[in-house]
């Protein structure tokens, strides 16, 4: 039982937007054992859409189409789907009522004919009502295969997938059980790791797959098990992990949750009723932004400062001028003072701080591009580490952020 | 002349990573008139790779393959490409030297056989040397079609595309000239806009395409012109814009640069030698993060505070307690005090501030979820606006950030 995702719209092909929709669908489907065979992004073009539908129907049992459902002329998906199914468009009264309601609630614009046309759906389609927008989802079946067309607006598509598409698919098909377990390692390259665990890998049972996912200093090992029986998959993955762990003890960081590390940290801080403040320099607000992306962050996150200019580190955070002069602004002394002082300022249990040089040019310090100091402060101590994350600005910022989260996670997880 | 991108790796299909590589390639290719016909994401599976290569060869003249070039067992791309081209792998001395150099410079791990195997390339391939990693790019030709295989690590892939793939493609093929011009409008829905400019749209010449790109309160109109002659495309797009502008005067915001709005703001501030500070509440650091993602931000960005907790707004930013009690923390009085005080704190020319409720729950205020106040402070004034961005947390944060940039852009662009 496999699915294919077809995304329609030139904006993905010309790189104007990144296709986050497919990643979302892939992740959600995966939770329920639905594998994605292929993701295909195509132009808003009738011939191309017909061709993609035909190929998808040959390869997959479930075809999810996103995009191309807006009211304007560049969207021809609905008509093309009609043609593919030898069908005609009919007005759906419930969809029309939804369109009218959305207009009366959110829009000062008059309801136009083009908006009313959103209520036209193929006569063979079941409507999936879109409560967040005017373009409905559509569910069609043929020869036991399911075609679902969804609007491309991410939050409209997401609600439709979660609340309607997945429940309907699960009631129609029986999916195998899938489980992924991702092990995070740090400090050994992909190939050295592969050599070390080669024997173990060679003896994995056929229904368990291993993937190496190297990313910025870490290698994640993803074990994927797939079988009809949940019990068999769960037990065998645990068996395999038990065999593996003794071989990677020195580089094992933990398991990667389905959640981001900052979400895991947030949960832990909430449970512990502890609070966090942040002082960022080279990471420029990315740590705070990642923390506050999680709902409920206000339970533990008090606030942060980005002291980008050297003078702000002195003025706002009270870092000593002589420390900066003697040790430079990218130094152990400065990063530790930042963490210590921001923790006091916001009166929190923990603080993270960063100072470094993300490049491309050297800043107010002679530190090599890529150098980043990260500190953690608690009520009774402050400590720091230095890293070199190479000479790509974005990479330095992302790795600095990840590493800061790793250090904090370690701090709040370890028993002292 | 069309290209297809094939990305290989389960991690995209299961949604573990978002395919930003294809968006990058699409954007870069587009600059040089190379259209992307299709993006296809497939599993790390021999049969599937062979099938995708065959289909791509039928549809496109240039096939770009990313991913699947790591040293470990789950990467079978190189062998499969060999099979597709009826070729064998041979050791490339220059690649081997590159692998050895990278290991001696960046890695404490010993150089293993699996690493040395990175130097094996199909005998018919031209090597595209990867100076950022051990997996080389490979360029193959058959029947006038070009196949390029690149590593999936974004910064390795990006350098190879820019510095090697595009120059080689341009010397081999003659591409038409492509120009996109994107017009930003605000305040009228997609369909009302389409109705208003229908006549103009119907009279567009065939070599100019129009797309409506609605996103979070704005509709972008993207005009794309494509022809052999640059002069013809440029002139006709300008003609069409001249015809269009009088019809959308009331909703016209500006042109969307290829750059992000924050990059445009950064350039303008640098030219003007002006500086910026930020005080964020509900946007949680996202504004600062977007500003500092641009190299050279230290020329104008002094720093920011994220005062997430109400108490931090008082303690750090000196917002008056009675204002908070009387008007609530999500109010005109509070947001303007935040902007005014953060500007003074960092001693800058401009400041932005936000306070609001991103949801999902109401915070320290009775303001409806989605309510966001945004203020701009300059040396001689402070003003603010209030918005309701709906009830999706991520949407509220993103729209708040975009809107803050729009307000700042207006402030620094308009002649007073």
Number of helices of chain A: 16
Q: Of all protein chain pairs, which has the greatest interface, and how many residues does each chain bring to it?
A: A-B, 103 and 103 residues
CATH level-3 fold name of the largest domain in chain A: Molybdenum Cofactor Biosythetic Enzyme, Chain A
Question: Would you identify the CATH architecture of the largest domain in chain A?
Answer: 3-Layer(aba) Sandwich
Helix content of chain A: 40-55%
In total, how many beta strands of chain A?
17
Q: Radius of gyration of chain A in whole Å, from Cα? A: 26 Å
Average pLDDT score of chain A: 90
- State the name of the first-level CATH class of the largest domain in chain A: Alpha Beta
The CATH homologous superfamily of the largest domain in chain A is termed MoaB/Mog-like domain
Biggest sheet strand order of chain A reads 2-1-3-8-7-6
Straight-line distance between termini of chain A: 49 Å
What's the main sheet of chain A like? Answer: 6 strands, mixed
Gross morphology of chain A:
globular
Q: What low-confidence regions of chain A span 5 or more consecutive residues with pLDDT below 50?
A: none
Count structural domains of chain A: 3
Structural class of chain A: alpha/beta
- Note the beta-strand portion of chain A: 25-35%
